[in-house]
Amino acid sequence: MDKIEQIKSVFHDELAACSTIAAVQELKVKYLGKTGELTGLLKSIKDLSAEERPSFGAKVNELRNLMEAVLAEKLDELKVAELQRRLQEERIDVSLTATKPWGALHPVTLIQNEITELMVAMGFEVLSGPEIETDYYNFQALNIPEDHPARDMQDTFYITDSILLRTQTSAMQARLMEKKKPPIKVICPGKVFRSDSDASHSPVFHQIEGLVVDKNITLCDLKGTLEYIAARMFGENTKVRFRPSFFPFTEPSVEVDVTCSNCGGKGCSLCKGTGWIELLGAGMVNPCVLENCGIDSKKYNGFAFGIGMDRFAMIKYGIPDIRLLFENDQRFLKQFGK
Ligand code: DAH
C-alpha cells in the first residue's frame, strides 16, 4: 500500500512537470504501458496473501482510473494550449491597410469629358452608336458608294462584305437623321477602327462627331462653334483657320487648323515650323446625304465636324506618340492623374 501511495505521488510530480503532449504520452506509457509501473504493481499481487489481494487490487485499479483521468485531462489542456499557440502564430491581420490602389481618368477620357461638357452647354445632345456598323451607314449613306476612290482614305476592318468596324463616327450621321428631324444638334463620341499603326495612327482611336441640321445654317456657324471649342481647349488666344478639303459627305469641306499651342504660332518642332496644327475635318452637310435620310435639302442644311480625341489629347498634353495612349503604362498615365 505504501508503494501505491509512493507511485501516486511521484506520478503527480512528473505529470506536473510535463509541458508537451509528447511528454504526457511518454508518461502514460511509463505508468500504464505493458511494462509500466502499474502493471508491475499488479504482477506483485501474487506475493500477497489471499486476504490482502482484493483490497490491493482495488487500490491499484483505483489508481489506474485516476491516472487515466488526469492524463486525459492534461492532454486536453495541452491540446487546447497548442491550438491557441498555432492560432496566434498563424494569425493574419486583416485590418492591415493594403497598398493604396491608384486610379485616374485616361487622357482621352479627360478630353472627351471636357468637350462633351462644352457642347452640352451649347445645347448639343450626346448620343452613342454601334461600333460594329453596316457598310451602308459607314459609307453608302455618306455618299461613298462601293468602289468609290474615297474608300481608300480609310483602311477598313471588314467583318463580312456588308458589316465592318466603323471607321468614323460619321456613320452616326445617317442613323441619326433617319430618326430625328431638324432641328438637330448632336455630338456622338466613340471608338473607331482602322487598319493602320504608327506613331500617329492607332488601329483603335476616338472621335467625336458633331452634327447640326436646321434652317439657314452657314459656314460661319461652323467656324464660330469650332473657334469656341478651340479657345476653351487650347487657350483664349488660339486662332482657327479653314483650308479647303474634300470629304464626300460635306460640301464644301474644310480641314481645320489651330495656332500651335506650344509656340503660339511662331513655329516650332510640334507644328513643324508652320505655326499651325491640323485639328479636324468639317464642312457643310452634303445635300445628297440629307436626301438619303429623307430630309428636304431645299429647306434644311447643316454642318458637321469630326474631332479626333486622341489627336486633341496629343496636342493639348504634348504627347509625341499615339501608341502611348494604349499601352497602359502607369508611369505615363500617372502624369494626367486627377
Ligand atoms: N469622318 C472623317 C474622318 O474620320 C472626319 C470628318 C470630316 C467628319 C468632315 C465630319 C466632317 O463630320 O464633316 O476622317
Descriptive notes:
With 338 residues, this protein is an alpha+beta fold. Helix content is 40%, strand content 19%. It has a seven-stranded mixed β-sheet with strand order 1-4-5-9-8-7-6, sandwiched between helices. Strands 2-3 form a two-stranded antiparallel ribbon. The longest helix is centred in the N-terminal third of the chain and has 38 residues. 3,4-dihydroxyphenylalanine binds next to β8 and β9.
Layout of helices and strands:
Layout: H1 2-17, H2 21-32, H3 37-43, H4 52-89, H5 107-121, E1 125-126, E2 132-134, H6 135-138, E3 163-165, H7 171-179, E4 184-193, E5 204-214, H8 219-234, E6 240-247, E7 250-259, E8 276-285, H9 287-292, E9 301-308, H10 309-317, H11 330-333
Parallel strand pairs: 1-4
Antiparallel strand pairs: 2-3, 4-5, 5-9, 6-7, 7-8, 8-9
Helix pairs in contact: 1-4, 2-4, 5-10
Short descriptors:
single chain; 338 residues; alpha+beta; two-stranded antiparallel sheet; 11 helices; 9 strands; rod-shaped; binds 3,4-dihydroxyphenylalanine
Unique ligands: 3,4-dihydroxyphenylalanine
Mean pLDDT: 92
Helix-strand pattern, N to C? HHHHHEEHEHEEHEEEHEHH
Structural class per helix/strand content?
alpha+beta
Strand order of the largest sheet: 1-4-5-9-8-7-6
Principal-axes shape call: rod-shaped
Q: How is the biggest beta sheet arranged? A: 7 strands, mixed
| Extended strand count | 9
Radius of gyration: 44 Å
The helical percent reads 40-55%
Task: Please work out how many helical segments DSSP would assign.
Answer: 11
Distance from first to last alpha carbon:
89 Å
Low-confidence stretches: none
Report the β-strand fraction as a percent range.
15-25%
